[in-house]
Amino acid sequence: xxxxxxxxxxxxxxxxxxxxxxxxxxxxxxxxxxxxxxxxxxxxxxxxxxxxxxxxxxxxxxxxxxxxxxxxxxxxxxxxxxxxxxxxxxxxxxxxxxxxxxxxxxxxxxxxxxxxxxxxxxxxxxxxxxxxxxxxxxxxxxxxxxxxxxxxxxxxxxxxxxxxxxxxxxxxxxxxxxxxxxxxxxxxxxxxxxxxxxxxxxxxxxxxxxxxx
Length: 213
Known about the structure:
The chain has 213 residues and is of the alpha+beta class. It is 38% helix and 19% strand.
């Protein structure tokens, strides 16, 4: 065999790719621009300071099962939805029952509410407490309001225990409002002392009877 012979392996050359069309270039650049815009928007959103928490405290007047008034400020209990005041569930006045449950939970004591913005009707959205009791959670736990973004765990337990609304058939408050074209409560004047005493007395009676629900 000749010394001059060498093993020869042909080198495969990569076939040059076809140049991108003008339309493809425009599409690629557009996608790149959209990507960077989305990243910039995300960074701006994350760096945006949160709205300051608003605190309200004082004697609370119960409007319905998910709405309070403190010093003339209407407060919507965030994360729950209770029957409207004049809503019936079958033969039961569930709207009134829900309100009385909230009155009984408050027991005439001062309430404090941690607000987080406002709804489209300019009511403060808040989580409210009496002592250590979370009123929003307690209403769902009692079956007198449904979860509306939060408190799904206690709603499931109320369903299993057939508490309050879950003891029978009822129409979801938002569906009832839609059918009856129910608007949110108009601002009401603060009740007099006699009205508060009557509400507290009725709540106390219902508490002694173990509740109607």
